[in-house]
Recover the amino acids of this structure.
């Protein structure tokens, strides 16, 4: 199965990351106006996400409770790997630059990104000097 989520699956996952374990009804309530699917569609998304390994479920009495099986961070990492695997290596820098420019990052996010890049460059320099 695909290792990434479609936009509707992201909506369901965001609801579950926000509160879990949750029943299907609680998840529908949490999704609110972001989607207006019929009940069977919500149920289908839960089944698909469970088959993909993104969520797990546990039966308690008459109710089935759903929980994320992987973190939001892991989902984002999977999406990133999927996008990067489609690109030629010389396009990756351009894509990242475009994402930073167009991504509406806060000052705090830009500073965090800059600190991360500085740390990576420092670690790379240290590894090169150890050789």
């Amino acid at each position: 199965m695909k290792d990434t989520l479609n936009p509707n699956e992201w909506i369901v996952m965001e609801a579950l990351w926000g509160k879990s374990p949750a029943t299907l009804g609680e998840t529908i309530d949490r999704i609110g106006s972001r989607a207006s699917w019929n009940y069977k569609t919500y149920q289908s998304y839960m089944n698909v996400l469970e088959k993909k390994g993104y969520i797990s479920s546990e039966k308690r009495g008459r109710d089935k409770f759903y929980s994320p099986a992987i973190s939001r961070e892991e989902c984002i990492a999977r999406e990133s790997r999927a996008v990067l695997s489609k690109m030629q290596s010389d396009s990756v820098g351009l894509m990242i630059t475009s994402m930073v420019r167009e991504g509406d990052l806060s000052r705090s996010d830009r500073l965090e990104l800059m600190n991360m890049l500085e740390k990576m460059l420092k670690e790379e320099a240290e590894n090169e000097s150890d050789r």
About this structure: The mean pLDDT is 90. The first helix runs from residue 7 to 18.
